[in-house]
Structure formats: C-alpha cells, structure tokens
Fold this protein.
Amino acid sequence: MHERFKVSRNIKKLCLFLTGSFFLASFAAAWYIDAWDQLLPGWFTIMTSPCPLVTDYFMLGNLASAFFNAGMCGLACCLLIIIPHSDCHASTIAEFFLVVAHCFYGLNFLNMWLPIFGIVLACKVMRMEFRSHVDMAMFSTAFGPFISEFLFRYPLGDQFVFGSVQITWIGVVLAVVFSVMIGFAIPAMLPGTLKMHRGFNLYNGGLAFGLMGLLIYSMMYRTMGLEPPAALPMTNEVYAAHGYSYLGFANIYFTLIFGICLVAGWWMNGKGFYGYNCLMQESGYRNNFIEEHGAPLVLLNLGIYGFMILAYMNVVILFTDGAGATGATVGVTLAAMTFVAIGQHPANVWPILLGYAVLSAFVTGVCHLTGMEVPWTLSTQGYINGVAFATGLCPIAGRYGWKIGMLAGLLCAIMCTSTSAIHGGFVLYNGGLTAGITTLIMVPLIEYYYHGKWKKDVMEH
C-alpha cells in the first residue's frame, strides 16, 4: 500500500510539474513575441472559436495564449486527480499527456468540461465512483471540437461569422445532449475496441472515439443534407513574421522539460541508468513500466525517449519542406509521450518512425521517376501528426520485430491523412483511430502467417 501511495504521489508531482511548465512557458512566450496585452484576449479567442483538426492555436490565438491554455487545462486535470483523492497509475500519465497535447490544436478550457460532465453523470446514474473513472473523464475531452461546433457554429449555419461570438439555446442543448450521450457510451466502447485490436494499439481511445465521431458527424452533416463547414479564415501577423514556426522556442522548452525528467530519473535511480536496458527489452505489449520497473526508470524513459522524438521532429522540419514548429507540432510532440509508462521506449518506436521514412522515400522516388510532383514530405503537418500517434503501434514492433514494426508504421502512414475526413476532424484522437485501423488490418494477418496458422489450414484441407 505504501508503494502504491508513493507511485500515485510521484505521478501527481509529474502532472503538477508539467502544468507549471506551461504557465512559465506562457509568460516566457509573451515576452518573446511581445504580446503581454494579447495573452488573455488570445485565450478568449481560442475558447470561443470552432476548432476541428487541425486548428493551430498559435495562429488562432498566439504562442503565449496557447501555452496558457495548456496550463489551465493541465491545472483542471490536476484538480480532477487531487480533489476526489483518486489513485494515480500509469494510465493517468497517458490521459494527462493526451489532454495537454491537444490544448495546442483543438482542446481548450471551455470545451473540455461538458464531456467530463457526461462522465460524472454516467457515474452517478450507474452508481460508480467518479474517482475511479477520472482517467476516462480526461479521455472524453477528445470530443471537445464537437462541443465548440455545437456552441458556436453548427446552429448558425451560413449565418456564422468568424470572430463574432453567438451562442444559441439550441447549440447549448445540442452540446449538453451530446455530452450526456458520450458519457454513457465511452465506458462501454473503450473495452470493446480493446478487444478489437487486442492491445496492439496503445491509443485505444482513438479507435473507439473515431467510430463514435463518424456516427455523429455523418448525422450532423451528410445525413441532414448539409455541407461540412469550411476552414476558418485566420490570420496572424506575428506568427507570419516568424515563418509560422516557433522552432527555437519549442526546442528550448522541450530540452528543458526532457532534460529535467532525465536528470530527475537518473538521480532517483541512484545516479545511474541501472535497469533501463531491461526496460528497453520489454515488448510494450500490455506492459506497465511503473509497476514493473519503477517511477525513476519511467522518468528516465520520458527524458531519453522524449529527446529521440524531438530529434526526429527537428530533422524532418529542417531537412524537408512542410510545416514547422506549429501549435500542432508542439502538441503532437507531447502526445508522442503519452505511453512512456505503459509501452513506449526508443527500442520499439524507432521501427515505426522508419516505416514513415521508407514510405516517404518510396513516394519521392516514384514521383521523380515519373515526373510527378512530390505530394507530401515527412514535415507535412498531417504526417507529423500521424507519426506521433503511430508510435502507439510499438507493441507490434516489440513483439514481432523491427521489420513488422516498420511495416506497421508504413501502413499507418498511408492512411494517416485520410481518416480525419470520416469524422470531420471533430475527434482529437484521429492518429489513434488510424493506428487502430492499422491493427485491425495487420493483427489478423500477423497471427495467421507469423504463427503458422496457414500451414495448419493447408494441412487440414
């Protein structure tokens, strides 16, 4: 019991540390872009605008207000963890990272609360303790863009004017009804989709919520004969002056965060890396690194793995044409850390990254041979987002080897920019949906051929 309490306390400290880092980064960003007077107005714009994928909060608000939004949402998560005296475990880290990651491109302090209310209500009706379902409540914020859409744009239709906040009673009712519905659906869907992909997609909520988003989005627009909304006409002169990229600021922030985690883990681990090699030998399939290896090695993993992902982001941004350190890029760098305590580590993630690189090289080579224009690069925003969530396929690489892991990354890369269309970009865990579909395709094939079941079928027939 004492060890369990110690682990829970360390997780709460990590969440509070990251929350504090967002506020400090917000103030540093306000100084960096000289936008103290725009911090709160930018945050207000973020909260009162539609925000489907990928709405860059550096563009919609500004650099400082986006980090401030992450800090406020992180603080809300900390209160949800601390006030009900919830027990924290490895998945708590996962949900926290997913929440704050999307605070840079789709989630905000306003649209996060109604989905949480839906979970609270479901717990009340079904007589379940909310403190045992706080993780699920944080997961539910993936539907935040639906809430913003109902509140600010959907009921107005063609009368919607960007920048003019108009909330209708119809929009409020739709948002509340939607939240109640997902509050009762989520507890049933998450275990169901886990059985579908058999634990090989760590981003389980992506598959569950993506399917739910497909249903709701189709009903809202196609079924009703309505055209999906157009992209918001956003401009931001300060952001444009920085080339729509804050790479230097992002590098300093992540270097400090990952560096502190690495040093803290090293210190707590007896000033050494003892045992980290054993952690990296884990497959990532149904692992719990905190229980199996302890919190110090999880912090070490967060630091080392974090620097690997940061290095990948820098390489693709600096050496290919595409997006830079946008709000979405900063967000998915955090999202790639989601399962550092449950399954992700450098040894089982690099094959996934290699799969993306192999597909990019193949497409580029074919285009050069045929005289076609290269349609995308590894720094195209959709592929930056996709690769961060494709890391959730690491159990495949860990269990079946780097070649199968590379293939999983390649297949995920093929689909990563197509799946958001099925839910209109209103489900934030789209990369998890893509990874989930990849497992639905791959796992039956792997089990049939890798385990030799085809030989048995041939012999029987």
